[in-house]
Amino acid sequence: MKDVNGQDIENQMRQFYESFSEKDRRLCAAIEAYELGPYKLGHGVVAYIADLFGCIPRRSLK
Predict the structure, then answer these.
(1) Which of 34, 40, 39 is nearest to 49 (CA)?
(2) Residue among 28, 24, 23 nearest 52 (CA)
(3) Would you give per-residue pLDDT tens digits along the chain (62 residues)?
(4) CB distance 29 to 49 below 8 Å
(5) What radius of gyration do the chain's Cα atoms show?
(6) Residue ranges of the alpha helices (H) in 2-44?
(7) What Cα–Cα distance (Å) separates residue 8 from each residue in 14, 16, 24, 40, 45?
(8) Which one of 3, 19, 45, 50 is CB 3.0 to 4.6 Å from 57, fit for a cystine?
(9) Whole-number pLDDT of residue 4
(10) What DSSP state is assigned to residue 19?
(11) What pTM value is reported for the model?
(12) Torsion angle, alpha carbons of 33, 59, 19, 5, to 10
């Protein structure tokens, strides 16, 4: 997910994520992790999404 505009995309994803309630944030993070899964981003996608959104992977992305 790091390309020429990667930082812009990540900032937009964070803004989108922060617009939700806590419950919806967990759902959003889980959906992003599922969509970017190991076939697109490789292993470590859950850790990447958790780091991007600043959430705890075990709780949010199950």
Answers:
(1) 34
(2) 28
(3) 455 567 888 899 899 999 999 999 989 988 888 888 777 777 788 888 889 898 887 755 55
(4) yes
(5) 11
(6) 6-18, 22-35
(7) 10, 12, 22, 19, 19
(8) 50
(9) 53
(10) T
(11) 0.70
(12) -30
